[in-house]
Amino acid sequence: MLPALYIFGFTPDLTRFYNPAYLFNILFLGLGASAMCFVTWNYAVKVLGAVKTSAYIYAVPVLTVASAVIVLNEPVTVKMLAGGVLIILGLLLSQKA
C-alpha cells in the first residue's frame, strides 16, 4: 500500500506526533484496539472453539452501539434497538442445540 500512497502524492507529516494527543491515539489504536482485540479473540477461540467464537462476531454492532451510548452519549434510536434485538435473537437461535 505504501508505494500506491506515494504515487498519489502522499507525504507523511511526522511533526503531528509532537502533539501528545495524536501520539497517544496512535498508540491506543496500535496497542489497545488492535493488539488486545487479537489476543482476546485468540483466547476466545481457544476456550469456546472456532465455530462458537465466529458466531459471536455478529455481536460487535450491539457492543459498538452500547459503547457509543455509554461513552459518547449517543442517542438510542428505534433502528438501533430493532437491529440489536434482531442480532441477539439470531445469536440465540444459532447457539441453540
Give structural notes:
With 97 residues, the protein is mainly α. The longest helix is centred in the middle third of the chain and has 29 residues, at 20-48. The relative contact order is 0.07. It has 5 helices and no strands. It has 2 domains: 16-48; 50-97, no CATH class. The N and C termini lie far apart (44 Å). The protein is 74% helix and 0% strand. The chain has helices spanning 2-7, 20-48, 50-55, 60-72, 78-95.
Summarize the structure.
The chain has 97 residues and is mainly alpha-helical.
Which features characterize this protein?
97 residues; mainly alpha; 2 domains; 5 helices
Quaternary status: single chain
Low-confidence stretches: none
Through-space gap between termini: 44 Å
Output the helix-strand order.
HHHHH
How many structurally independent domains?
2
Choose one word for the global shape: extended
Characterize the largest beta sheet: strand count, sense, and whether it forms a barrel. Answer: none
Proportion of helical residues: over 70%
Chain-averaged pLDDT: 85
Rounded Rg:
19 Å
Describe the SSE topology.
Layout: H1 2-7, H2 20-48, H3 50-55, H4 60-72, H5 78-95
